[in-house]
Amino acid sequence: MNNYGTPAIGLVKGRGAVLTAEDGKEYVDFLGGIAVNALGHAHPAVVAAVTQQIQQLGHVSNLFISEPPVALADLLLALAGRTGRVLFCNSGAEANEAAFKISRLTGRTHVVATHGAFHGRTMGALALTGQPAKQDPFRPLPGDVTHVDYGDVAALEAAVTTATAMVILEPIQGENGVVVPPAGYLTAAREICTRNNALLVLDEVQTGIGRTGHWFHHQSEGVEPDVVTLAKGLGGGLPLGACMAFGPAADLLTPGSHGTTFGGNPVSCAAGLAVIRTIANEGLLDHVKRVGEQIRLGVEGLNHPLVKYVRGAGLLLGIVLNEPVSAEVAARLRDAGFLVNPAKPDVIRLAPPLIISSDQADALIAALDGIR
């Protein structure tokens, strides 16, 4: 179907953070499949885990249990440092749909989300998304959803009441151009939700699994949400999402209330285990912080006439431009052998593999310097 248009290039293989196109041209991948390929392409740990698992047990459905999803659920809860439950699915949209359904089981229906947010394109997730251009062709959308300005504590305070089932927030708005809220925003949201007995749901689909230098970005602020949604980097390139719930929220789904045929697929979960263990074993959380800061300081240090500043955390960065020319800059960088994303007319988004090297970061900075 024509919902994607025609892509600019066709890719045939990848290794590490380098992709090869059908014409043989190589590109350094600073988008990572939209923050998905946490370990880059063809990482030996992922290849080995997937190969071994598919040779042993490929799919069992949700009528049976296998070892990889149990091990991965235990590991995710250990990383969160809390007791809870995990529902596996196939994507971020599905994870957010599960969170939406969990919120209905509180007995309330009102939901608060934010302008500019992106939570997926299925009908429920689209109702939570705060981007009219994506929503308008598909209205009416389900649910009683109020959107407020992102980062505005007073607006959140005014919108959340004792009739609110959940508040859903991204710790950093990725699709909206890597928008970072003011310090303390998540803490304030937690307090507002607690006071009104509403669920705090944090969409960590883009920020989770080490992307910002923390396993989950909300840990940087010490906040404890009721529900966390994950996908993208969790599967390291395979379709894998998760909805994690803690405290009373973890017990709201009961047998028969939700399901997914492919959720908890052993092969995808084996990949997820390989991703997390490799991030831990290779100290990639610290690496992400170092290289992310290297890129930020390097780009801002260019004093480039097109660059206003760099925002974000770790390896989820937005280069904010002085003019709405991100598409042109991205095209020039592509010609120079670098793949980036013009997320907004005035923002270039970077979400490279967590293994991106210091030398590759310097090469991107130099390429940007050459665009004047």
TrEMBL record:
| Class of this enzyme | transferase
Residues engaged in binding N(2)-acetyl-L-ornithine: 121, 260
Report the cofactor remark: Binds 1 pyridoxal phosphate per subunit.
Q: Which cofactor does it need?
A: pyridoxal 5'-phosphate
Residues with PTM N6-(pyridoxal phosphate)lysine: 232
Q: From the Swiss-Prot or TrEMBL record, state where the protein is found.
A: Cytoplasm
Q: What is its EC number?
A: 2.6.1.11
Q: What keyword terms does UniProt attach to this protein? A: Amino-acid biosynthesis, Aminotransferase, Arginine biosynthesis, Cytoplasm, Pyridoxal phosphate, Transferase
Q: Known PROSITE patterns for this protein? A: AA_TRANSFER_CLASS_3
The molecular function terms in GO held by this entry are:
identical protein binding; N2-acetyl-L-ornithine:2-oxoglutarate 5-aminotransferase activity; pyridoxal phosphate binding
Give any extra note attached to this record.
May also have succinyldiaminopimelate aminotransferase activity, thus carrying out the corresponding step in lysine biosynthesis.
Q: Which family does it belong to?
A: Belongs to the class-III pyridoxal-phosphate-dependent aminotransferase family. ArgD subfamily.
Q: Which HAMAP family match?
A: ArgD_aminotrans_3
PANTHER family membership? ACETYLORNITHINE AMINOTRANSFERASE, MITOCHONDRIAL (PTHR11986:SF79), AMINOTRANSFERASE CLASS III (PTHR11986)
State the protein's name: Acetylornithine aminotransferase
> What organism is this sequence from?
Actinoplanes xinjiangensis
Gene encoding this polypeptide? argD
